[in-house]
Amino acid sequence: MENLKKRPSISLLLKNGQARISPMGFFPSATFDKYLASFSKFSSTFEKKEKAHYIPLVEAKAYLELIRSEGFLPNVSPQLTKEIHTLGVEDSREDNQHYQWIIDDLASRELAPRPLQKEAVRIMSKRRSFLLLDEMGVGKTIEALCSIPKEAPVLCVVPAIVKINWKEECEKWRPDLSPVQLKGRNSFRWPRPREMVITNYEILPRAVRRGPLGYCIPEEFGSPEKGTVLIMDEVHKAKSTSAQRTRSLKGIKNHVKRTSGKVFGLTGTPLINHPAELWNVAQVCDVAEEAFGTWENYVRIMRGSRQGYGNSYIWQTPPMDEAITSLQRVSLRRTLEMAAPEMPPITHETVTISIDKQTKEACDKAMEALNAIGISLEDAMDDAMFTKDQDLAWKEISRARKQLSLAKMPTVMKYVDEYKEAEEPLIVMSAMRGPAEAVSKRDKWGAIMGGVSHKQRDTYVKAFQNGDLEGLGITMSAGGVGITLTRGSHILAVDSSWTPADNQQAIARIRRIGQTRPQTVVWIVADHELDRKVHHKVMLKLNFIETSVEATTSEIWKGEESSLGTNIQIKDHKEPNNRTFQQPRRGPFGETEEWAAEAIAKLAKDDEDYALINNNLGFSRVDSPVGHSLVRRLDVGLTESEWSRCVAMAKRYPAQVGEPPAE
């Protein structure tokens, strides 16, 4: 974590309807001069007896931004934070003018964002720093582009693979801006007014640390224009404080803030593995202190505890309610179902298969290598740094995983044939290159993986969407962002990435606005401890992310469902036989299902607050999203798996709904 204790601290309190400001502790002469100079741009008064300055509340937010950019650490009272937040969300004349201008401009060109996207634009137009956490497929790119002030200079930092996407979207949604793509190292430059410079993380200039100013971009690049807007797409790539890209983004952000600019961070997966990463992302987006105050407070409300003497923490789930409300102050999180209520559900299935003797021996060898050094597979998946012995074990695991992916190919090809016979397009997804290469050799198949040019990638996507290809093989790293594959509604997952966000992003290729059919993801898991544990660990991480991040869904849309909790069904199978691509819906059959339907309807009626208050009425917080979703579907009927879930859920609340009828 960035060491905050070394930064000079300033106290900010709410007193007599103004912000009271004073230094905390002794300041060296140069630091104190800088502190006094900070008031020169504000309507401040000095109270000699209190040795404190006062500024109007309307100027408090701007003052906070200034002192942060100057390297000070503000210590803001909760009362003042609340007042600043209240003022910050009030409509200003300038904000209203921009919002109305962009909506009218889009309408004149027959472009109409969805209501939920308009709401994001309205909120972001009023913010200087913001974290847009909308789920993949909601339309974060559109929302960010439409929030840019008219004629502003814009710097977009995005993954290299989607630079062309941002250029095309800019030309469509903001023709008043001129998009320019940067290529190659040392190509960085600041944008000019009415220009959007698009660069990627890998070619950002290296930042240097300059005392209390924090990270800075080398002087040779100059300074940004006043009012520059910084947009960071997939900002979760800055999750590590030690990564050069994180330092570069902090340097760029600091320059932008010093010139009264705006900072927007975009990601659908802000929490990749554990809550520390969300803090790092919030710092890069300049919202960490506004939302959470200090790192110590963040650890407390995210229910973390230090493990040992280093920077290792154990995190419990779910986080405290305070964490949710704190993040909501500076972010917006809406699910795809909120943006498109008509979105059909998604089903996850696990198919367990047997493996050959050679592959089993490779898996055994990998597990033995871990056991020899006394580390579990689960711990190995969490570690980012390895000793020499651990690195050797890691190589054995990588070899086994690669061999596992090849051993699964007969099952994969069986599925491919079945989908071909059913005339159903299929996407084969893997963390490895081998499966994508193998299926791409079939007639009317393509592959999106490392080494495939953007032009060829675009050709494959268009061919798939137009129906010219029967299927696509994709690796999660190359095919997980920047493409839409909504013609397909079925994914065959040969294996999983150890980073849950990679799996989510790859699956989101079929789960986007425009999808009209229920989706199915089939996970192929080998009947061996290694593969079972990897799959189980990944699912646990996904669940942790959902309970920690999905709970932050904006209160504006409170009561709607979150992504994994509401309309994802889980099934387990053995080897595949005949497949049914859509499950029929029906009403209750028998006394037990009739009882369960009445039971969950009663629980939903009693759960008016969606389990926000612990009052022992209605559903629990875990069951609430799923339960309400099931109740809404009772009128059209439930599938077999949904009826099973309905009965199981009702049985968990005997005190409220009684016992089920005797079977």
Please explain how this structure is put together.
There is one protein chain. By secondary structure, the protein is an alpha/beta fold. The protein has 5 domains: about 10-90; about 95-285, Tandem AAA-ATPase domain (Rossmann fold), CATH 3.40.50; about 290-330, no CATH class; about 345-355 and about 410-575, Rossmann fold, CATH 3.40.50.300; about 590-655, no CATH class. The protein has a 7-stranded parallel beta sheet with strand order 8-9-7-12-13-6-16, with helices on both faces. A 7-stranded parallel beta sheet has the order 19-20-18-21-22-17-23, sandwiched between helices. A hairpin with a 5-residue loop joins β10 (about 210) and β11 (about 215). The longest helix has 21 residues, at about 530-550. The N and C termini lie far apart (about 55 Å).
